[in-house]
Amino acid sequence: MSNKSISLGGLIEGAIMAALAMALSYIPHDIGGLGIQIQWGILPLVLVAERRGWKIGVVSGVIWGVLDAMLRGGSNLLNPVQIIMEYPVAFGVLGLAGLVAQPLAQALKNRQLATAIVYIFIGGFIGTLSKYFFHFVAGVFYWGSYAPKGWNVWLFSLYVNGISGVLGLVYAAVVLAILVSIAPQLFSVSDNNRHIEAM
Description:
Blueprint: H1 8-24, E1 30-31, E2 36-37, H2 42-52, H3 54-72, H4 80-93, H5 101-109, H6 113-142, H7 153-182
Antiparallel strand pairs: 1-2
């Protein structure tokens, strides 16, 4: 694998996955009444990041975050700092799942399916942990007034964002593990077009 610049094909693929993530956001995803949710769009974002690398993943996440703010933000847009933190930044860092793109591609090349699944989980963990860290911070400073009476705002934000993050990780990791088992080519880019970025 070479350390080439981001390709136009990678950017187009990333934009398509961001649009797919945005479309999936319209499927109901709230669980209970406290703000816990599964964001279905995590799946295509983690897939493109683990396929193309973290730079394409971050760009794709930023696109999704901006689209989500513009199309669905509404009353969730409180002030410029909160908007930037919870949309382009939080969605963008989901693309850090692509930090495992090179070892994942190598495991698939060597037909090491179990190792590939481990990398898929690690990448998903890095991405979702990063995303929900920013939602957690925003929850403390901007959404604390929604905490039920008697709840500490730090614990409330950790509860809501922690459960949302774990649900998102499990959903993405299970679906991607199934996909890599039945269609490993979804995680590979042909050698002519491979532009996975090294750190």
